[in-house]
Amino acid sequence: MTEAGKRNFKKINHSKKPVGSKIQNDHKDSANGHSKKEMGREQTAKKTTCPVRKSGDDFKWQQKANAVVKPEGCDEAAGCPLTKKCGGCQFTKVPYTEQLKHKQMHMRKLLGRFGKVEPIIGMEQPLYYRHKVHAVLGRGRKGEIISGTYEARSHKIVPVEHCLIEDEKAQAVIATVRRLIKEFKLYIYDEDLGTGLMRHVLVRRGYATGEILVVLVTGTVVFPGKNNFVKALVKEHPEITTIVQNINDRRTSVVLGEREQVLYGPGFIRDELCGFTFRISASSFYQVNPAQTEKLYNTAIEMAGLTGKETVIDAYCGTGTIGIAASRKAGRVIGVEVNKAAVRDARLNLKDNAVKNMTVKQDDAGRFMLEMAARGEKADVVLMDPPRTGSDKNFLSAVTKMGPDRIVYISCGPDTLARDLGILTKSGYRVMRMQPVDLFPQTEHIENVVLLSNKKSHR
């Protein structure tokens, strides 16, 4: 690692992420109303920006032939000037090759006692990869309308004009929404008073399909001039597939409310992942970096060693993405998920993809496996993708009691992964492979896929 890179990394504290930081809360968080991953219900998200010329309504996006052009003065090589305020990224001033070296070294130190850590799978284009973009709306010091993110450990809004890791088209849509709010003279929601209309904007774009979902989060059901607002937004961005109004009248930091109404289009978009199509709504879980997610899932399925005969349990299955991807090579797949909305989405995805050898159960995965074991049933492979906090002892006990031949553990929390591997290796399992995958370039976060084998199966 270069001396400059070392100096930058010395500033990073890996022990704790700032409260409310983007990647921490936006990836997998049971507090969001989803048992394992965010459902969009809690997202005090942090953004990272390129150098900002001016915040608010007067900023002019340069557009030509519907293409997004970066603001003047936006030098990607210079890193992000708002890193300390935003808290979403830590490594924007560090060359990507050095980031990968650092993450590889960190994984070896943390996980090396369990075996060899394979070379990290990096990203070919490590910028603008987040296909889900959230902006909180507010007013600046001069009363101008701003959009951005909450400063770390506060509810002070950091104005964001351009972010190095978020989809550029999504950012352009947010800039237009901000301008239209001023033109339509709509009131910005006041968090302290609990009054006003416009609270947040959420944009999701399909990586493979290019379809765009825009979610306008409002403080009341009444939305003056909403039809004309929608027409103006679609005229500016005809690539928009659907627009949804989400109503959140609670005085809370949670982004999405329980009610919504479709203002334009079908109310959802579709994207393709691992050869399958998935429906994405405002609250659906879907990995924010689909390009790397394919590498992550393909690695996990390869490790599972499926031959077409195995029974596979997809624990913490969410909307069924990895289970559906594995169904092509498995005998049968059982997805287990406690969240009712996620189960509904998973079953819709099964139907849309005509998957016949997978079922989804609404249940606690640990309890479900204990009941299977009590009936004398067994799974050959367990795929587990828990939240950042890792698995609990009851779940790990249930897995080992069932005794599958192989466990494939997908982790977004290296520290809790190390803890759980310590438990599993003392309970009859051996670590066979460990593969880091960089899903979050420019940040300290990293995913790992680990294959564990039952020692009894190799006697």
What's the helix and strand layout?
Layout: H1 3-9, H2 22-27, E1 62-64, E2 67-69, H3 83-86, H4 96-111, E3 132-139, E4 145-150, E5 157-159, H5 168-183, E6 198-205, E7 212-218, H6 226-236, E8 240-247, E9 259-264, E10 269-273, E11 276-280, H7 290-304, E12 311-315, H8 321-327, E13 332-337, H9 340-352, E14 358-362, H10 365-374, E15 381-384, H11 393-402, E16 406-411, H12 414-425, E17 429-437, E18 447-454
Can you give a write-up of this model?
The chain has twelve helices and 18 strands. The protein has helices at 3-9, 22-27, 83-86, 96-111, 168-183, 226-236, 290-304, 321-327, 340-352, 365-374, 393-402, 414-425, and strands at residues 62-64, 67-69, 132-139, 145-150, 157-159, 198-205, 212-218, 240-247, 259-264, 269-273, 276-280, 311-315, 332-337, 358-362, 381-384, 406-411, 429-437, 447-454. The strands form four sheets. Strands 5-4-3-6-7-8-9 form a seven-stranded mixed sheet, covered by helices on one side. The radius of gyration is 22 Å and the shape is globular. It starts with a helix and ends in a 5-residue tail after the last strand. Mean pLDDT is 84; it is low at 12-75.
